[in-house]
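Posting for a labmate who doesn't have an account.
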Amino acid sequence: MFKFFKNHRFRISIALLLIYFLLTLIVQVEKPRTDNWFSAFNQSIAYPFQTTYHFISSHVNEAWLHYIWLINVREQNRELQKRLYQSKAENAENREIKIAYKRLLDSLDFKKQNSDIKVFAEVIGEVQNGFSRLIIINKGASDGIKKNYAVVSYEGIIGKIQSVTAFQSIVQLITDSHSKIPILIQRTRTKAFLQGSDGDLIITDILRRVELKKQDKIITSGLAGIFPKGFPVGSITKINKKSFGLFQKADIRPSVDFSKIEEVIVILKSINNIHQPIFTECK
């Protein structure tokens, strides 16, 4: 008998626990009073288990509610991020619309002046080969464009036509290292040359005795037969005046942002055939 209990003690223990809980249930149903000895004993025995169960169940419930809350917060964050992205996209679209609208107004205003001698074109390509700075436009000989015609925008000069095909043209920018055009310092009326320098601009051949100031405006002089006089070119940002030599130089910030050129205007006549100003001289 002892050997039987020893070999089956686990099963016997489970059976006794089941009998105990069954008797507890019967007593609670038949005599649900709390003043009988069995009920009191049962409560004292069950208390630690009930407390543990309550502790675990409450924490599990709290964890579950917290998990549900996190899920809701995550969904709300996704919705807010979606709205934020939509708002950014709408703002970007509105900025593009404003930019296009301003460009249109400027172009229409520009078109009012000498409309018979200008062709509007779009930039369709770029060429940066060594020291060359070139762009390709979607207008060519079929539109009346010829080599060396001036290319400008309402902000200032851009370059000149380098080569032409029937429907396209290549424009040499003034920042090209092979570009050199005569200019005027507007304040002093001093003549000099604007030289492209690997994407930058400098003015050269200015006598040392000429007083230069930062922010001095630079305009075209009209002497090379390409750009009419008075076109905006840029402004002085740095003066390079050595302690010796006859001349000084200056760095120029162009009026045109060459990284953002999208449309250009080609002047279809040489300046010898233009009898009225295309631009009023920059102020």
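Reply:
Got it, the structure tokens are right above this. DSSP finds three helices and twelve strands in the chain.
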